[in-house]
């Protein structure tokens, strides 16, 4: 798994959200949370597992909306940040954080109503193994995102600290079928690269987002989208 050692560092975990979700990056945070809520709702009393939960950005949000949620991550440093966030939000009674390997999930079959992963599959060295494990422990829904091979990200991917695994749509649909899931929906988003949003102030990001959304609504924009959100279910 790419980044396994990188994300273990306390300094990386402490700076993670400020680095990615400050300035115009707040818009990306809002959009990703919106995508998760759209896919997983209704949430009340549903048992949910988040793979690679990191600092608890989604885990805490879902617990605040009355989901019973487990957040799993390989990095103890990231989990520590998540636990602190949960305490501040007052939702420690609705969630558990666990350190574990996403390729060997410590749960029985069909244990959760839904399993999801965000910002995970671009680091996956064996994506089929990970998705198959997610499907195994979910009785119904599996939701995840991917960075796309034909996007602007492919231009500068080599310059990123760990790079990213970039996916063609056909590859992801094969992964879904290989996990004995059926694709329910896919949404393409963000023609412009994430890094651009993070470098500009909020007010400028909102205007840029309007242009970005208009571009994504067209067939050409969809084919060049940076990210895709995939919703799959057991048949």
Explained architecture:
The protein has helices spanning 10-20, 25-40, 57-64, 76-89, 127-137, 153-156, 169-178, 194-198, 202-216, 219-223, and strands at 47-51, 68-73, 95-99, 112-117, 138-148, 166-167, 181-189, 227-234. Helix 3 (57-64) runs parallel beside helix 4 (76-89). It has one domain: Rossmann fold, CATH 3.40.50.150. Strand 2 (68-73), helix 4 (76-89) and strand 3 (95-99) form a beta-alpha-beta unit. It is α/β, with parallel strands linked by helices and 235 residues long. Strands 1, 2, 3, 4, 5, 6, 7 and 8 form an 8-stranded mixed beta sheet that branches. The protein is built from 10 helices and 8 strands. The relative contact order is 0.16.
Topology of this structure?
Elements: H1 10-20, H2 25-40, E1 47-51, H3 57-64, E2 68-73, H4 76-89, E3 95-99, E4 112-117, H5 127-137, E5 138-148, H6 153-156, E6 166-167, H7 169-178, E7 181-189, H8 194-198, H9 202-216, H10 219-223, E8 227-234
Parallel strand pairs: 1-2, 1-4, 2-3, 4-5, 5-6
Antiparallel strand pairs: 5-8, 7-8
Helix pairs in contact: 3-4
